[in-house]
Amino acid sequence: MSDQKQTKLNQLKQAIIDAKLTPELAATATQLVFGDGNPNADLVFIGEAPGKNEDLQGIPFVGAAGKFLNEMLEMIGLDRQDIYITNIVKYRPPNNRDPLPEEKAEFLPYLQQQLAIIKPKLIITLGRHSMECFLPGLKISQCHGQAKRKAGQVYLPLFHPAAALYNGGMRQTVIDDFMTIPALLEIINETK
């Protein structure tokens, strides 16, 4: 089963390259950063776009924010092999600027296909940009750490791990929100 999913993900990755999405972003990026982890994962984490380290390695969340994410996964007894992680925009924006609305819009159908292949029980959005793609109209400062169900899918909006790195006062909030994941997954499994 996982081989089939991985094959479909590989085909989707190639489809993005073939479609020549966001050519101006692709031109300044080293490579497409598609996603990483277990194609059968119950949890999918979605960030906004690759940064410098991600662009160089071709893997999402490998920089400082990724290390913090790995630490938090350990706190709840998981590691990167248990989850799947990706971004909305799959090319690094120049100078780590925020992805533009039209860039997010171009990648969104492919992200939706990626999620349709994986079929996670819980989608965890990391940061405002990611949350707005799935839960438009909400403010992350008001709804972080609160699960939302939309069209049969459960979402958990979290602050981006980088927020805790730039603002030490947010570190505990980010960790506390993260710690709710196992119980939330248990509830989802019971209601399925």
Fold-level CATH name: Uracil-DNA Glycosylase, subunit E
Distance between the termini: 20 Å
- What is the CATH H-level superfamily? Uracil-DNA glycosylase-like domain
What ranges have pLDDT less than 50 throughout 5 or more consecutive residues?
A: none
Category by helix and strand content: alpha/beta
CATH top-level class: Alpha Beta
Question: What profile does the largest beta sheet have?
Answer: 6 strands, mixed
Give the mean pLDDT.
95
- How many beta-strand elements? 6
Radius of gyration: 16 Å
What features would you describe in this structure?
This protein has helices spanning 2-19, 23-28, 52-57, 64-75, 101-118, 128-134, 140-143, 161-166, 171-178, 181-191; strands at residues 36-37, 43-47, 84-87, 122-126, 148-150, 153-158. With 192 residues, it is of the alpha/beta class. The protein has one domain: Uracil-DNA Glycosylase, subunit E (3-Layer(aba) Sandwich). The chain has a 6-stranded mixed beta sheet, sandwiched between helices. Strand 5 (148-150) and strand 6 form a beta hairpin.
Task: Please supply descriptive tags for the structure shown above.
50% helix; globular; 6 strands; alpha/beta; Uracil-DNA Glycosylase, subunit E; 192 residues; 6-stranded mixed beta sheet; 10 helices
